[in-house]
Fold this protein.
Amino acid sequence: MSLKITVIGTGYLGATHAAAMAELGFEVLGLDVVPEKIEMLSAGKVPMYEPGLEELLAQHVAGIEGSSGRLRFTTSWEEVGAFGDVHFVCVNTPQKHGEYACDMSYVDAAFGSLAPVVREGSLVVGKSTVPVGSADRLAELLPEGAELAWNPEFLREGFAVQDTLHPDRLVVGVRSERAEKILREVYATPIGEGSPFVVTDFPTAELVKTSANSFLATKISFINAMAEVCEAAGGDVVKLAEAIGYDDRIGKKFLRAGIGFGGGCLPKDIRAFMARAGELGADQALTFLREVDSINMRRRGHMVELAREAVGGDSFLGKRVAVLGATFKPDSDDVRDSPALNVAGQIHLQGGQVTVYDPKGMDNARRLFPTLGYADTALGAVRGADVVLHLTEWREFRELDPAALGAVTAERVILDGRNALDPVLWREAGWTYRAMGRPAA
Ligand code: UDX
C-alpha cells in the first residue's frame, strides 16, 4: 500500500512539497495553523506567486474539477496524526529579532503538536533549515515507536516546482535503515530519474543546507568584491566574471555582480550559521561570513551613492527616482530583505521622491513600505524621473524600449544594479548607462 504523507506548514516550501508529493502519486494531507491559508489552498489558490505552483495544486486538490483528489488540507493535528505514515515538517525558521540566531519557535511548536498524535511506526522528516544539532534534540521529543529523519530542501524561489520534482540531489540524515528505506520509497521517482541520493547522519544533513547557502552567498560576495576592485581600477566585472567562469572549477553561475543577495534564505542562513558556530566554539571557522555579509550590504549603500551622483551629487531633495523592481529576485513576489526595496527605502528616507514598479511584488512591497510611491507600469514609474534604477532583473525590464522610456523621463540616466541590461542598446537610445563594477562609458 502506498505511503500516506502529511506536510506541516504550507508556506513556500510546504505548499510546493505537498503539491509535488501528490504529483508523485501519494495521498497528501497538508496542515497549517493559519486557517485562511488552508481555505485558500483548499480552493486551489496559492498565497504567493510561484510559477507553475497554482497549476500543480489545481491538478491535485480534492474537490477541484478534474483533479486527482490526492491532496487535502486541514488545521487538525489529530487528523494529521491519524492519517500520516510520513510527516514532513516544513515550517519556517526566520532570523530572531535583534540577533543573528534563527528562531526555532515554529519548529518547536510543530514538534510539540505532532509528537502526541503521531502513530506507532511513523516517520517524521524535518525539512526546515535549522541550526546543526537541532535534529538530535528534536528526536528526543518524539514518542517511542516514531522516528525522525532530516531531509533539507534546496528549492529556489521561481523554480520551486522544478527543484522539488527534479532535485539536483536528495540528502537524508537518518538513524536507521528503515528510515532510509521509507525515504527511498517517497523519492523513488526522482531517484529513478537519476537524482543522487546522499545518506548521512543528522548533523551532516543539517550542515549540507547551511554550507551550500554559505557557499552561494560567498560566491556572490566574491564577485561583488571584484566589482569594487574593478570600479577602483577601471576594470569590467562582467567581462571578468565571464572569463573566470570558463574555468569549470569556478563555473559561471552565481557570478552576477550587482546589488547583491537578499530574500528569506541566504542572509538569515549565513547569520544563523555564524551564531551556531559560535555556540559550538567554532566561530573562527566562519568569521569570513561576516565579511561576505558586509560586502553584500555595502553594495546596497553603493547603489544609493551612484544614484545620488546621478542626480547631481549632494542630495536627493526634490529629485525623482524611478525604481524598476521590488522583489529580491525575478519570478517571485517575495520582498523579504530585498536589496531593491532596501535601496528604494534608503533614497526615500533621504528625501528622494521614489516611484517603484514591479511585475509581481507590488502588494507585498506596499505592505512593507507603504510610504514609497508606486506605479502600475514601468512607463508610469519612470515618468518625469531624474534617474532610473534597475534593481531586479525581470525579463520585462530587459524587453523595455529605451526610446519609449526616454521620451517620458526628465533625464536619460539609468543605473543597472543587476548588470542585466544591454548597455549598447541603452546608450544608442541616448541614455547614460552605468552599472556596478563596470567603466562609466
Ligand atoms: C537560495 C538557494 O539558492 C536555494 O538553494 C536555497 O534552498 C534557498 O536559498 P533563493 O533564496 O530562492 O534560493 O534565491 P537565489 O536564487 O539563491 O538568489 C539569492 C539572491 O542572490 C537573490 O537576491 C539574487 O538576486 C542574488 N544573486 C544571485 C546575485 O546577486 N548574483 C548572482 O549571481 C546570483
